[in-house]
Design a protein that fits this description.
CATH class of the largest domain: Alpha Beta
Strand content: 5-15%
Structural class: alpha+beta
Shape: globular
CATH topology of the largest domain: NADH Oxidase
Order of helices and strands: HHEHHEHHHEHEHHHHH
Distance between the termini: 47 Å
Radius of gyration: 21 Å
CATH architecture of the largest domain: 3-Layer(aba) Sandwich
Largest sheet: 4 strands, antiparallel
Strand order of the largest sheet: 1-2-4-3
Number of strands: 4
Helix content: 40-55%
């Protein structure tokens, strides 16, 4: 059953006008909070967005995606070391550090990465739990954009960062029937014992099917292959540049 959920899951961006039952929401949350976590620290917090006006704002701040506002359940997953740092202060860690003549350490880059890992593991638990109840979901990575706006909107302190957002709902029939996207063959992803860089022949084989999906006509504007298409559409896009700028500012606040 679980394997079927994993193999058949796909992102859902259109939902029935049907609320998510309270008991279903509670079970998804229960499963989320049982996710594996570093040192049992649970280095994350979750914002349950129930205010429709905030959902409307997220549509705009997360790269203009209207389906966010139509999702019956929106959770923002926060990498959170603020809670533990505040607890350390509350516990008198600064005093014992002074006694031992050592400097009290603040959260650094490694702590951020660990908190992000904790957070996304919990998010994936939520995804699979939701699938088990017939709910669809979609990850919104764009929550990493517009850091300053989201920081103010959600009252985020320095050691808290919105690393991911999930929208949930019962999928429409069209979404249920929509064909699943393909994945790369495992030989391009899974290596034995050491990393293997791919070459030209590898890339030609790896992307052969995706080359067939390229748009045609004027939309291409001189683009001749999938690599060029994805560089311009994703990697070098306006939203991608904003995401990098936003994360850079967040890291400055975290390690500042």
């Amino acid at each position: 059953m679980t394997l079927n959920l994993l193999l058949n899951r796909k992102s859902i961006r259109a939902f029935e006008k049907r609320p998510i039952e309270a008991n279903v929401r509670a079970k998804i949350l229960e499963a989320t909070l049982r996710a594996p976590t570093a040192g049992n620290m649970m280095l994350y917090s979750i914002l349950d967005i129930t205010d429709q006006s905030i959902k409307e704002k997220l549509v705009k701040t997360c790269d203009n995606q209207p389906f966010i506002a139509r999702a019956p359940m929106v959770w923002i997953f926060l990498a959170d070391y603020q809670r533990w740092y505040d607890y350390f202060i509350h516990s008198g860690v600064d005093e014992i550090c002074a006694e031992r003549e050592i400097k009290m350490r603040k959260p650094e880059e490694g702590d951020l990465f660990l908190a992000c890992s904790d957070t996304l593991i919990a998010a994936q638990n939520a995804v699979i739990a939701a699938e088990s109840f017939g709910l669809g979901s979609c990850y919104i990575g764009d929550i990493m954009e517009n850091y300053e706006i989201h920081k103010e909107l959600f009252n985020l302190p320095s050691y808290v960062f919105p690393i991911g957002m999930l929208v949930f709902g019962y999928p429409t029939q069209q979404q249920k029937d929509r064909q699943m996207t393909s994945r790369f063959d495992e030989k391009f992803i899974v290596f034995k014992n050491e990393y293997q860089r791919l070459g030209g022949d590898d890339f030609n084989e790896m992307f052969a099917e995706r080359e067939k999906s390229l748009p045609q006509g004027k939309a291409m504007r001189g683009i001749t292959n999938y690599g060029q298409h994805m560089f311009l559409r994703k990697f070098d896009s306006k939203f991608s540049r904003e995401m990098s700028r936003s994360v850079r500012e967040m890291v400055k606040a975290w390690v500042g």
